[in-house]
Design goal:
about 450 residues, alpha+beta, single chain, 13 helices
Length: about 450
């Protein structure tokens, strides 16, 4: 840098203009953190907000964002810590004061094992008083009730809980019957697990725990069956980072981070929570995916793709129906560990492709074909590599209300897709034989279906 330019920079710093110029980076950090938080990538959002507090330690907004993040997930001690720092930088801010007092009270009660219904009500009142300059809520986002129920490792029944955990559920039941909450329906009971154990096991465990909590609240007359749906996030959305995943059951139960991540969140179900499934194909030798819609014509060596966008983790299955009336499961293939959709990675690009980004090349006679995608909060034994024996005339399982495709979207609408998505690292599916089905699936209504033609 030349001497004249150095003098210019020094002059700007002395005049206080350089911080003003750099200050433009703060909105970018906050925006990035907000986007991650809306996708429930809590740890990444925490890292971005923390960068904002380090880069701009005199600004309250970064600490406020961190407080909001921890509050939404029921980590009240950390929420209070950050609200306290924000209030020191913005003394006299009434909304920060209300949030701090409520979170401090919730943190004290949480340390004793039970957050009282009145504390949740006061916290909700403080949140409702927040001005729009705080974290912008995603469209249709409603209030949440975050609480921690520490099931023993690999346990999910209410009978597995100790008396403290049951008292916490009783407080939540009282809250749901209060004037502030009794008309807030429908609700989602969202189960989260710690990172000990496999993805698939925790996805199932989170669902069973959420279902157990929901059934308990129904037994207390706090909810009706039609009021709420239980879903599982598995271990895909931790709020506190932990580097210890291979712990014994005893060590996992004592680990603070794992205890914070084993949580249940009850929230208002606003807007459409139905997954969106789109079909694509890659012509042989091409690097670009094209929309696969009803009536499309494919060559036998073209690769079929499925992209799934979902608000919560699901088990996904891709089924093919060929012109010879043969039914087969294209995904998962034999030897695949599971069919779980895990949004911690999936939602990075807004979609997930079953089969680890590999395409499906169907076999058999050319002609009229169809591909079907089934989504479920639990594994569908019929589509697993070792299916259970089929029961003749068994009624199909009732799908969760969250898994119904929106009316009019039973088939893929090409207008929802973007033509020309670049896929430069495609690889062919190493091809164990697809699992054959004896006939049409008994798994209920598919989330999406596309009919196309193929020829040699």
């Amino acid at each position: 840098m030349c001497f004249r330019k150095m003098l210019w920079v020094v002059g700007l710093c002395g005049a206080g203009l350089m911080p003003m110029m750099a200050q433009e980076d703060l909105p970018a950090l906050l925006k990035a953190g907000d986007e991650l938080a809306q996708r429930q990538e809590w740890i990444k959002a925490t890292e971005v907000y923390t960068k904002a507090t380090v880069a701009y330690p005199s600004q309250a907004i970064g600490f406020e964002r961190l407080g909001d993040l921890y509050r939404k997930n029921g980590v009240f001690s950390r929420a209070a810590e950050n609200y306290r720092k924000a209030l020191e930088l913005a003394p006299g801010d009434e909304r920060l004061g209300a949030l701090l007092r409520s979170c401090e009270r919730a943190a004290r009660e949480q340390a004793d094992g039970v957050v009282e219904a009145g504390t949740f009500r006061d916290l909700a009142a403080a949140v409702r008083g927040i001005q729009p300059k705080t974290v912008p809520a995603s469209e249709g986002e409603g209030e949440t009730i975050p609480f921690h129920i520490n099931f023993p490792r690999n346990k999910y029944l209410i009978g597995d809980l100790d008396s403290t955990a049951r008292r916490q559920l009783d407080e939540v039941a009282d809250l749901l019957m209060s004037p502030e909450w009794r008309d807030r329906r429908p609700l989602i009971v969202e189960g989260h697990a710690c990172s000990c154990g496999s993805d698939a096991a925790n996805l199932v465990l989170g669902r069973k725990r959420a279902e157990a909590v929901l059934e308990y609240l129904i037994s207390k007359d706090a909810l009706r069956k039609a009021d709420a749906t239980a879903v599982s996030m598995g271990k895909s959305n931790p709020v506190v980072a932990s580097g210890n995943e291979n712990l014994s059951a005893e060590a996992c139960a004592r680990d603070e981070a794992h205890n914070q991540n084993r949580r249940v969140i009850i929230k208002e179900a606003h807007g459409s929570t139905a997954p969106l499934v789109t079909f694509w194909y890659r012509p042989m030798g091409a690097e670009t995916l094209r929309p696969l819609t009803d009536g499309s014509v494919l060559y036998r060596k073209d690769e079929i793709r499925v992209k799934v966008q979902a608000p919560n983790p699901l088990f996904a299955y891709v089924v093919h129906h060929g012109p010879d009336n043969a039914w087969e499961v294209l995904y998962p293939r034999s030897g695949a560990p599971d069919a779980a959709l895990l949004p911690a990675d999936a939602r990075r690009d807004g979609h997930w492709i079953p089969g680890a980004d590999a395409g499906f090349a169907v076999q058999g006679k050319p002609g009229d074909e169809e591909a079907l995608v089934y989504l479920s909060a639990a594994p569908i034994a019929e589509f697993e590599a070792k299916p259970k024996p089929r029961v003749v005339n068994a009624p199909p399982p009732t799908p969760s209300p969250l898994l119904h495709p929106p009316k009019g979207q039973e088939h893929v609408d090409a207008s929802q897709t973007q033509v020309g998505i670049k896929e430069v690292e495609l690889r062919s599916l190493a091809a164990p034989a697809a699992m054959k089905l004896a006939g049409p699936p008994h798994a209920g209504t598919p989330a999406a279906i596309v009919k196309f033609k193929s020829h040699d």
